[in-house]
Structure formats: C-alpha cells, structure tokens
Amino acid sequence: MMMCSRSFFILPVTTIIISCAIMAPHLQTASANPKKVVRILDSIPTNNPVQPMKPLLVHCKSKDTDLGAWAMNENDEREFHFRVNIWGTTLFWCEFNWGVKARDVVVFNAQEGQCGGERYCNWIVKTDGFYFAKGESPKDSDFTASAGPKKVVRITDLIPTHNSVQPPKVLNVHCKSKDDDLGLWTMTENQSREFHFRVNYWWTTLFWCRFDWGDKFANFVVFDANSRDGYDCRRERYCNWQVKTDGFYFAKGEFPKDSDFVRKAYWMDK
C-alpha cells in the first residue's frame, strides 16, 4: 500500500515537471517577441486643390484588436504600440477615408518583414497617396510611395477591312484618364494596342476611350478601379477589349478564350 501511495504522488509531480519543460521555451519566445510602433502622419494640407477642408478618418485594426476611429488634420500624428505574436503572424491594416476617397492599407505585416529589424514603421498620408519608411527618425528621402497593382488594357481591332457595314474605314482610338492623355491611335484589322499603368493609391483610377469608325462612334470606360460589376479587372492584370462591327466585347485575364468575351458596348451613329 505504501508503494502505491508513493506512485500516486510521483505521477502528478512528474507531469508538472514535463509541462513546465514544454512551456518554458514558449514563454521565453513570447517575452522575446519584438515591440513595434506604427506611426501615421497626416500630411494633407487643409487648403488643397483636391478636397479642401476634409478631415482624414483613420480606423486601424488587426484580427484580434480594434483600435477605433481617429479624426486627423494636417500635421497630426498618431501611433500605436504592440508586440508581434509568438507565431510571427501579426498583421494590422487601416481604413483611410478622406472626403469621397477611401483606401485600405496593410500598415504592418510580420510575415513580410515590412519593418525589418526596425521598431518603427512610419506612414505619411498625402493628397497623392501613402508613403512608407522604417526607422525611428527617417528622412524625407527615405519614404517611398505605396503603389497599387500594375494593369494592362489591351484593345484589338477585329473589324474586317471589307465588311457589309461600312466600306474600308480605319479605327481611331483616343484613350485618357483624368491625369493622362494617351493620344490618338489609328488601327486596322487584327491590330492590337495596349497601355500599362498602376492603380493610384486611392484606387480611383479610371480610363475611358473614344472610338471612331467611319460614321459610327462610341465613348465608354475601359478600366475602373472602383468597378463592382461582373466584368471588372480588379483581380486580374489584363483587361481585354475586342472591337467588332456589332460592338465592343470584354474579357479579363492574360490569355482569354474567344468564348470568354462578352459584348458590353455598342456603336452609335454620328
């Protein structure tokens, strides 16, 4: 009976020792996880030509933590502090709203080593976008623009030179955005033209094109970063348009099949 009694007490003690041995490395890792600081500076002039007198609203959160909303004005600075979790997966993103413009930005991602070995991750918000630099006291030249994804709009002329609608007529195409005028192109049967760009920092990039073919014309949007319909290119790099005698056909993706194209616009008479 005495031996049984001793075994009864030895087992829990052994279990506790083993448990402590297992937990110790994790506790040590947790205490060693680095502290980080995300600092955000509002550098949007109060009187600016884009949207004057509009405060910057910022709402930052992670999967587990909601930091609430802040209202910021020119030269205001806010920061938040945290430790990277034991799995090294900490991620914070912020929603920025400035008048009619909005953008979600990942301001810290431990898995991408966004701040490297630095404690401070700095963001400056300007009228033309978001700029990032790491380090406690970065210089202005250290900040780089946080650019949107690359996009390509490809236009193909599939109007037969000899067709039943109009005698041989060239296709004239003129594409532009609010900030860029791509000039006039003259296209003929089976010719393709494309233009490349990055979506702007506020995700408001929009391009439209004017098409002229003999006594017919069309004018419509060929790319809209804010599009929410079924034929947008937000998740694809390539946005393809085919021009035919009966209208304009759209498909997304680098190598779409003919069956992927859907008619989205029509010719009008001048």
From TrEMBL:
Its main location: secreted. It is found in: Secreted. GO terms for biological process: rejection of self pollen. It holds the Pfam family Self-incomp_S1. Residues 1-32 form the signal peptide. It comes from the Eukaryota. GO terms for cellular component: extracellular region. Keywords: Secreted, Self-incompatibility, Signal. PANTHER family: PLANT SELF-INCOMPATIBILITY PROTEIN S1 FAMILY, PTHR31232. Belongs to the plant self-incompatibility (S1) protein family. This is S-protein homolog.
